[in-house]
Design brief:
With about 170 residues, this protein is of the alpha+beta class. The chain has one helix and seven strands. It has a four-stranded antiparallel sheet with strand order 4-3-6-7, with no helix packed on it.
Length: about 170
């Protein structure tokens, strides 16, 4: 036989108070969640903005590429998770020649106060008299890739050494 429970009114109030407090804590935890409190963004908005200032010049050791760091996403908001660049190259004078991946540059300065503003890459694997086309694609930590940059074309020439005029001998 089971005996009826005989709690005092103070015990009932204490148990009820604990239950209400526990429910309030659980509700707060459930509501807080984790992560950033913003509406989700479509993937096309978090693509890095396309690089538009890629330049290529002949250097004594190869073809020197330079470009500016993208600082905005495609939607115009400030980008803070740049992870790197893919450098692509096509060889030859035919404009239909497909680009191939040449090199990947990882960016490791995201947490630094002063970040690199201009990047460069020296393509040493070139031959004189050959035409090269280059473009750069940037990507984020989540591997969202930008559209390819402006394409630049350069015909590889080896800069000649500076020739000095012969001085007359007395």
């Amino acid at each position: 036989m089971r005996l009826p429970r005989t709690d005092s009114p103070a015990d009932c109030r204490a148990r009820w108070s604990r239950s209400v407090w526990l429910a309030a804590v659980l509700l707060c935890v459930a509501q807080s969640g984790c992560g950033r409190k913003a509406s989700p963004r479509p993937p096309e908005d978090v693509l890095p903005k396309t690089i538009l200032d890629l330049q290529a010049v002949n250097a004594p050791e190869g073809v020197q590429l330079t470009w500016s760091r993208p600082s905005l996403y495609a939607d115009g908001s400030r980008m803070s998770d740049l992870a790197g660049f893919v450098i692509e190259r096509a060889v030859g004078t035919d404009p239909r020649v497909p680009f191939a991946r040449l090199h990947i540059i990882e960016v490791g300065d995201r947490d630094r106060f002063r970040q690199i503003k201009r990047f460069q890459h020296l393509d040493r694997d070139t031959r004189a008299g050959t035409t090269y086309h280059y473009r750069v694609v940037s990507f984020t930590l989540d591997r969202y890739f930008s559209e390819p940059s402006n394409a630049v074309t350069v015909e590889r020439t080896v800069p000649s050494e500076e020739k000095h005029a012969l001085l007359p001998t007395p």
